[in-house]
Amino acid sequence: MPTMIANRSEPSPDGRLPASPGTFHSLLDDHPAQSADGLRLDSDSSRILIVDDNPDILKLVSKMATRLGYRPTIAEDGVDALYYLTKGHYDLVITDFDMPFIDGYQLADQIKEKHFGTRVIIMTGCCEKEVEDLLDGTGIVDGLLLKPFNLKSLKEKIEMAIQPRFVGWTS
Predict the structure, then answer these.
(1) Contact (Cβ atoms closer than 8 angstroms) between residue 123 and residue 149
(2) Does residue 72 contact residue 62 with C-beta atoms inside 8 Å?
(3) Which range of residues forms the domain containing residue 99?
(4) Span 100-127, mean pLDDT?
(5) Global pTM?
(6) What confidence score (pLDDT) does residue 90 get?
């Protein structure tokens, strides 16, 4: 599990990603293949696009995804994300909800319309009830990740989002 340390050098007891990134910095190692905690996934070919307007969150979530065995690409906003999606296929997009230009919900809607099979997880550190109400039953988003979160929570959300779904399957 990642270790998070406050600027005052006090360990965070649960290793969670901060809601405000300036409060903590990560001590994640850069060797995902050597993870002994059972959190690494066998998904070396899975590409993830991570979208957030906060560079500290981008860097940290990217390191977490790398540790889980994914190949992350980062985008600083929804416009950049849409550009990257035109240049290559991504199995999953993890996007912040509250961003300038295009919010996470609008981005998810465009992804579902133009990039069949790409799953979307929205992460948010605020407005939990509003976001849940907005997403409830729309089918546009494949998961909601609430900040703060840890490596195990991220792994669980990714696994839930990317598992195969059979809609309309008849025998």
Answers:
(1) yes
(2) yes
(3) 44-162
(4) 92
(5) 0.70
(6) 95
